Amino acid sequence: MQQQTQQQNQQGFEQIKEAAQKAEQAAEQTLQVAQEIYSQATEAALSEAEQQLQDLQGQIQQAQQKTEDLKQELQTTQESQQSQQSQQSQQTQHSQQSSQSHQSQ
User: Fold this and answer.
1) In this structure, what DSSP letter does residue 52 have?
2) What is the rounded distance in angstroms from the CA atom of residue 28 to the CA atom of residue 99?
3) HSE value, Cβ hemisphere, 13 Å, CA-based, for 54
4) Which of 87, 86, 67 has the alpha carbon at shortest distance from 75?
5) CA-based R_g, the chain, Å
6) In whole angstroms, what is the distance from residue 95 CA to residue 67 CA?
7) pLDDT band for position 15 (50/70/90)?
8) How far apart are the C-alpha atoms of 50 and 43, rounded to whole Å?
9) Contacts for 20-27: CB closer than 8 Å, 24+ residues apart
10) pLDDT higher for 35 or 2?
11) pTM of the complete model beyond 0.85
12) How far apart are CA 105 and CA 97, in angstroms?
């Protein structure tokens, strides 16, 4: 009877040992899957961040080009206004001179 109890204890121990090994294997597999998911998620997030960075760089370049275009447009407008003012000033002086010359005659 004592031998039977020892045998039952040994079988119980073996079952516990087997269950522990299976649990350890399951934990290792779970860890591997979790690491793979983490790796994929990290890669996806990095890819998304890189795409957003490229989009932002494109927007910055567009904004810089627009700024340059507007500077050029402003410069052209200012030059045109200066030219018009200069012409008007010359016309005014010419008409004043013509007017004075007619008055003196």
Assistant:
1) H
2) 105
3) 6
4) 67
5) 45
6) 41
7) very high
8) 10
9) none
10) 35
11) no
12) 12
23-57 pLDDT tens trace: 999 999 999 999 999 999 999 999 999 999 999 99
Helices (H), the chain: 2-104
Q: For residue 83, give both structure tokens.
A: 């030219």
Q: How far is it, in rounded angstroms, from Cα 82 to Cα 75?
A: 10
Q: How confident is the model at residue 99 (pLDDT cuts 50, 70, 90)?
A: low
How far is the C-alpha of 49 from the C-alpha of 22, rounded, in Å?
A: 40
What distance in Å separates the CA atoms of residue 35 and residue 40, rounded to the nearest whole number? 9
What's the rounded Cα separation, in Å, for the pair 53 and 43? 15
Counting Cβ atoms within 10 Å, is residue 63 exposed (0-12), middle (13-18) or buried (19+)? exposed
CA distances from 87 to 2, 56, 82, 93, 95 (A): 125, 46, 9, 10, 12
Question: Tokens 């627009």 label which residue?
Answer: 66
